[in-house]
Write a structure and sequence with these properties.
The complex is a heterodimer of chains A (495) and B (147).
Chain A lengths: L7 H15 L4 H29 L2 E4 L10 E4 L1 H24 L2 H4 L3 H17 L3 H19 L5 H32 L4 H9 L3 H19 L7 H5 L5 H25 L5 H23 L4 H22 L2 H32 L10 H4 L1 H15 L5 H16 L2 H26 L18 H20 L1 H16 L2 H8 L1
Helix pairs in contact in A: 1-2, 1-5, 2-3, 2-5, 3-5, 3-11, 3-14, 3-19, 5-6, 6-7, 6-11, 7-9, 8-21, 9-11, 11-13, 11-14, 12-13, 12-18, 13-14, 13-17, 13-18, 14-16, 14-17, 14-19, 14-20, 16-18, 16-19, 17-18, 17-19
Chain B lengths: L4 H24 L7 H19 L4 H4 L4 H21 L9 E6 L3 E6 L2 H32 L2
Antiparallel strand pairs in B: 1-2
Helix pairs in contact in B: 1-2, 2-5, 4-5
Classes of the chains: A mainly alpha (495), B mainly alpha (147).
């Protein structure tokens, strides 16, 4: 495989975005272009993952400029893994969005924006340059600003505004951080930064490390910078919320992981701080969810809680911890998306996602309820589902490092998550059908089969992750080894 | 709405000059200040002035194509410039510099990145005009309500 091909997951969606803009109101043509582009990108991303795992990372110097002047794109195991999972989730979610209708059917700009989101995400994963990481973030954030407020309801605009303002504040901080990094190290190439940062005074390194942690922490929604997420995500239309909850915070986590391992390895004090933040994120997220009675609002708080687990793994800073965090991020991408998609099916059948209003959905939709059951209990960490594997790996890594307190917290939070999922299950699915809530017959819901088909695929992706835990964990462990020993990465990029 | 003749006449004079200047900036880019983005901004602000002068709904009269087509063509040009060098076995975005002697123009340097810049130019102009197209009808509605 030629190294240059690694731009495919970025350039194909961007080209498709250009074409779908041109085809404006021809929805069928737009759908065909988007589906082909995402199918091609994800197929390639999987092939790239296999190749990178066997033969080593792919590196491209854009414009053939020598490093560290030009922009470097790197697909190592971590990046290839996340790109493959993200593009697959995006492909299935697009099918779901087409079935769901809503803004996809009404707005000409849905497909271009969705494809720009894809291109930006892949760019953020594949770049080897800190400034280019900013560009990737901006591309998918710009698209997300429009997608989150697409229906233009009062609620969406109100909540979307806080999302946009916070996004812009974070991006501005990111830009400042980039300026400081360039001023102190004279480069923004991440491999080059690895070398240059080692020579910087301790205080400067710690300060820049803290600033980068702040920026990516805000993007990933860690405590205490998570407020924007449970506020804004539930107001977005369900297919959009599903994609956002599955993927966007994970890019923040990836950026955190990459900068912490490659540029500023945390010292003991930073590790202690990160562990404390991880524990607080888990607890506050799960407690916030307890008070919610709307399924989507409840799930949004769980995103925060689960981000805590990933930060926990990253903060352990050991091969097993980071491998666990990577596996956990993959699990989240599939499971979180699927849970929001179930909420969308409920919404289309009954017009409501409120736990208190609904009851006995299992009678009218046993199959969808079963899918929810699988995903919800995977999130709660019931064996043999993928959530259990991820949490087990993190707990083992925590015990290995002697981080007893945080490990204990993660177990308690797991229990509370189970309680929360059981609350949705008993509230909305179990019991006698609620009076006064009309459940539309399947035949009357437009695109129902497409939605449920996509939902099935994404639930199966989560299940497959659990069944293939051995090989997947092996891959995550190899990726974590690469991350913690960046010498190979640096040599490859700088030549 | 009361129109200002001074403004209309000035815009008519400025528009063509600004558009030519924007194309100059587009070609001057790469080694000198300018480039697709700056050129696009100049053209976009000139068109913005023209829309204010012509009034809402003037987008269709001023542009021969739908604004979204500009966006589409611009983005295709950009991605094509990224991919094109790969067919020759070079790195993506790879580009060269050629110079030729033309009568009247003198020595002209052509940069391989020019299609990229042109794409950026079209995207910026397309974006500005899309915004004017989008807010146009609302402005119309407000006007009707005025006494």
């Amino acid at each position: 495989m030629s190294d240059d091909l690694l731009i495919i997951p970025m350039i194909v969606p961007l080209t498709a975005a250009a074409l779908t803009i041109g085809f404006g109101s021809h929805r069928v043509v737009q759908r065909v272009i988007s589906l082909l582009a995402l199918a091609g990108s994800s197929a390639f991303a999987v092939a790239m993952l296999v190749h990178v795992d066997r033969e080593g990372p792919l590196v491209v110097q854009a414009g053939n400029w020598p490093t560290p002047i030009g922009v470097t794109l790197v697909a190592d195991r971590t990046a290839a893994l996340l790109v493959a999972m993200a593009t697959l989730v995006l492909l299935v979610s697009l099918v779901y969005a087409i079935g769901f209708g809503g803004s996809e059917r009404e707005q000409d700009a849905f497909h271009p924006l969705y494809l720009l989101l894809t291109g930006g995400l892949c760019l953020a994963f594949l770049t080897g340059d800190l400034f280019n990481l900013f560009v990737g973030f901006e591309i998918f954030l710009m698209a997300s600003y429009v997608l989150i407020t697409f229906d233009g309801t009062r609620e969406q605009v109100r909540r979307g505004s806080s999302y946009i303002v916070l996004g812009i504040v974070t991006s501005t901080l990111f830009l400042f951080a980039l300026g400081f990094v360039y001023a102190s190290a004279g480069t923004v190439n991440m491999a080059d930064l690895h070398d240059k940062f080692a020579g910087l005074p301790e205080g400067v390194r710690a300060g820049l490390g803290a600033l980068l942690f702040l920026v990516f922490g805000m993007k990933a929604a860690v405590f205490p910078l998570f407020g924007w997420l449970p506020d804004s995500y539930p107001s977005a239309s369900t297919p959009v919320a599903a994609v956002f909850s599955g993927l966007l915070t994970k890019v923040g986590l990836y950026a955190l992981l990459r900068t912490q391992t490659l540029i500023v390895p945390p010292g003991d004090r930073q590790v202690a701080l990160m562990l404390a933040i991880a524990a607080l994120t888990m607890v506050v997220g799960v407690l916030g969810a307890v008070g919610r009675t709307d399924i989507r609002g409840l799930l949004a708080f769980h995103i925060v809680s689960q981000v805590g687990y990933a930060v926990f793994g990253i903060a352990l800073f050991s091969v097993s911890g980071i491998a666990g965090a990577l596996f956990f991020i993959l699990h989240q991408m599939a499971v979180k998306t699927s849970l929001f998609q179930v909420a969308g099916v409920l919404e289309r059948r009954t017009g409501s996602t409120s736990i208190s209003a609904l009851s006995g959905f299992v009678r009218s939709a046993p199959y969808v309820s079963a899918l929810f059951f699988v995903s919800a209990f995977s999130l709660a960490g019931i064996p043999p589902l993928s959530g259990f594997i991820g949490k087990l790996a993190l707990v083992e890594a925590g015990v290995e490092q002697g981080a007893w307190v945080v490990t204990g917290v993660s177990l308690v939070v797991g229990l509370l998550t189970l309680f929360s999922m059981a609350k949705i299950w008993t509230g909305a699915f179990w019991g006698d059908p609620a009076e006064g809530v009309a459940v539309a017959p399947i035949g009357e819901v437009r695109g129902y089969g497409v939605m449920v088909g996509a939902l099935t695929v994404i639930v199966l992706m989560g299940v497959a992750l659990g069944l293939a835990a051995g090989p997947m964990m092996g891959l995550c462990t190899r990726a974590a080894e690469d991350l913690l020993d960046p010498a190979g990465y640096v040599r490859l990029v700088l030549g | 709405m009361r129109r200002s003749i001074i403004f209309d006449v000035t815009v008519r004079g400025v528009l063509d000059a600004a558009l030519v200047a924007s194309v100059f900036l587009l070609f001057a880019g790469h080694n000198r200040p300018g480039g697709g983005f700056v050129g696009g901004l100049v053209a976009g602000s000139a068109l913005g002035l023209a829309f204010v002068s012509i009034g809402p709904g003037g987008v269709d009269d001023l542009l021969p194509v739908r604004p979204r087509l500009l966006l589409s063509i611009g983005l295709v040009l950009v991605t094509a410039t990224v991919i094109a060098p790969m067919f020759g076995g070079n790195a993506p975005l790879d580009h060269g510099l050629w110079s030729t002697d033309l009568p009247f123009f003198g020595t002209v340097k052509i940069v391989g990145a020019l299609p990229f810049d042109t794409g950026v130019y079209l995207i910026v102009v397309g974006m500005v005009t899309t915004v004017f197209e989008a807010i146009g009808p609302d402005v119309d509605r407000d006007e009707v309500q005025e006494p």
